[in-house]
Amino acid sequence: MRIILSYFIGLIFGTGISISGMANPAKVINFFDIAGMWDPSLAFVMGGALLVTFIGYRIVLKRPSPLLQSSFEVPTRRDLDLSLIGGSAVFGIGWGIAGFCPGGALPALGTGRTEVFIFVAALVAGIFAAKKMQAMISDRAPAQA
Question: Which residue ranges traverse the bilayer (predicted)?
Fold first, then answer.
């Protein structure tokens, strides 16, 4: 049941990304081009997503537990650390340069365009590199203490 629901949730997400044009890197890059051919539609997509999320969280978190899980796993950390700020900066820079974010790139794989596959390959390589760096930092921390 969980796999079927995950499939339908992903299908809805991918359809929304495709319909909104967020799988088109030119549309995303034009959002960041304020002095040129600025396209504000991304702001409306984000605003709509924030509104749906705000309402959805209010409704869902009133339940005692999720449908397919024993409890909610809501993050409790509220501090800003170097990993969060650095990761956000790298994400934003990559999004502005490539015109893809992970959420928009995965549905765009269906287009078969080479640049999408290159982006996703770089994304996966970046994930592995970040995990390796975190492991190296974790291994060094006890030795320095």
Answer: 41-61, 82-106, 112-130
**String of b and e for 20-50 (b: at least 16 CB within 10 Å)?**
bbbbbbebbbbbeeeeeeebeebeebeeeee
Q: For every one of its 145 residues, what pLDDT tens digit does the chain have, with 9 covering 90 and above?
A: 888 988 998 899 889 888 888 888 888 889 888 898 898 988 998 899 899 999 999 999 999 998 888 899 888 989 999 888 988 998 888 888 888 888 888 888 888 999 999 999 999 998 999 899 889 888 876 655 5
Whole-angstrom distance, CA of residue 15 vs CA of residue 100: 16
Using DSSP's 3-state secondary structure scheme, residue 36 falls into coil
Q: How many CB atoms lie within 10 A of CB 8?
A: 10
Region class of 123: left (phi > 0), else alpha (psi between -120 and 50), else beta: alpha
Instruction: List CB contacts of 25: < 8 A, sequence separation 6 or more.
Output: 98, 99, 100, 115
